[in-house]
Amino acid sequence: MRLLAVGDSFTYGEELADRMTAWPFLLGKKLGYEVTNLGKPSKSNTYITRQTIENAHEHDIIVIAWSHFARMEFSDEQGDYEIWPGCAGNLFQGELHYRKDLIQYFNRHHSDSYLYNQQLINIILLQNYLKQHNKRYIMLTAFNQSYGETSTRQLRILSSKINSQIDNTHYLGWPDESMMEWTYGTLKGNGGHFLEQGHEIVAGKIYEHIRHFKWIP
Questions:
Q1: In angstroms, rounded to a whole number, what is the distance separating the alpha carbons of residues 217 and 211?
Q2: What is the pLDDT of residues 113-162, one digit of tens each?
Q3: pTM for the whole thing?
Q4: If 47 and its partner were Cys, which of 43, 63, 115, 160 is the partner (CB 3.0–4.6 Å)?
């Protein structure tokens, strides 16, 4: 049996001394499953959606840990890259100077409500895809979603019609909790990532939900 985990740095195991103590591997050990961990630092939800669709058919349980709603993926002749409009400005620009123009434009003129709605659509389309293919899946959120002038609560109100289509029986903590709430008070690395104790907590919460679904004996 095989477990697929897809996400950003919190799924990858950033700042852990041993990445094999990241929550996907701890969860796999609890289940007795082989683990594919496709978490990658700084990755957007576009990456998460694409990797899930490309790899879901090979796995028995899929856990999707969404990143911040505003992380965006672009691509050019040098490959894919992510930016995060409104957060730190040049966070994901890399070494290619011509990408700065696009990044600066989105930092000045992006719409939080548009990006939030796009993320909700990603979630709904992916949940429906997985259900259509009879895949066992769980979704969760990696870290707090608010920043800037518009609160997440305001965004949810503006997007209530789309929001209501998310199946919260498969989405742990929706809409207010993330891994960061679950791991509050545990040790964090310099970059803000929870460490071994936090990963144990996350793995435990997902495992209990899998047991609730009776997907394992």
A1: 8
A2: 888 889 999 999 999 999 999 999 999 999 987 655 566 677 777 677 88
A3: 0.93
A4: 43
Q: Starting at the edge strand that comes first in sequence, how are the strands of the sheet with 2-6 ordered?
A: 34-37, 2-6, 61-66, 136-141
Residues in the chain: 217
Name which of 18, 50, 110, 64 is nearest 206 in CA terms.
64
In angstroms, the CA 17 to CA 3 distance is 23
Domain segments of the chain: what residues?
2-70+111-213, 75-109
The helix (run of H) or strand (run of E) holding residue 148 is none
Distance CA 85, CA 71 (A): 7
Pick the CATH number of 2-70+111-213 from 3.40.50.1220, 3.40.50.1110, 1.10.132.60, 3.20.20.70: 3.40.50.1110
The residues, ordered by sequence, that sit 6+ positions from 142 with a Cβ below 8 Å of its Cβ are 7, 8, 9, 10, 11, 65, 66, 67, 68, 178, 179, 180
26-72, pLDDT tens digit by residue?
A: 999 999 999 999 999 989 999 999 999 999 999 999 999 999 998 98
Query: Among 125, 103, 99, which Cα is nearest to 46's?
Result: 125
